[in-house]
Amino acid sequence: MSEISRDEVSRIARLARIALSDEELDQIAPQLDHIVDAVSKVRQVDTEGVTPMSHPHSIDAGMRKDVEKRTLTQKQALDQAPAVEEERFVVPQILGEGD
């Protein structure tokens, strides 16, 4: 197990633009060391012949049939809108002035 030094934590924090106090540096160094040690142990597990998966249980998504359905016409969709302009919904601007 290689220990992560306080100086290494300070350097990583500086690169990540995270301000840490001396107390936090002293506290985080052993925590990071513990995390690196745990990851190291997981990497040592023999996974030869193990099929990669994204979920621990097999999942059947069950695709539905692609069936055409009636939907609202543009007129029906805009009929109840509080404000319409050029056959579109009018909504308040949310991203800065004049964008």
TrEMBL record:
Q: From the Swiss-Prot or TrEMBL record, what is one GO molecular function term?
A: ATP binding
Q: What gene is behind this protein?
A: gatC
Q: Quote the EC number.
A: 6.3.5.-
Task: Name it.
Answer: Aspartyl/glutamyl-tRNA(Asn/Gln) amidotransferase subunit C
**GO BP terms, alphabetized:** glutaminyl-tRNAGln biosynthesis via transamidation; regulation of translational fidelity; translation
- Chain's role: Allows the formation of correctly charged Asn-tRNA(Asn) or Gln-tRNA(Gln) through the transamidation of misacylated Asp-tRNA(Asn) or Glu-tRNA(Gln) in organisms which lack either or both of asparaginyl-tRNA or glutaminyl-tRNA synthetases. The reaction takes place in the presence of glutamine and ATP through an activated phospho-Asp-tRNA(Asn) or phospho-Glu-tRNA(Gln).
Q: Which HAMAP family match?
A: GatC
Regarding protein family, the annotation reads: Belongs to the GatC family.
> From which source organism is this entry?
Corynebacterium lipophiloflavum (strain ATCC 700352 / DSM 44291 / CCUG 37336 / JCM 10383 / DMMZ 1944)
Which InterPro entries is this protein grouped with?
Answer: Asp/Glu-ADT_sf_sub_c (IPR036113), GatC (IPR003837)
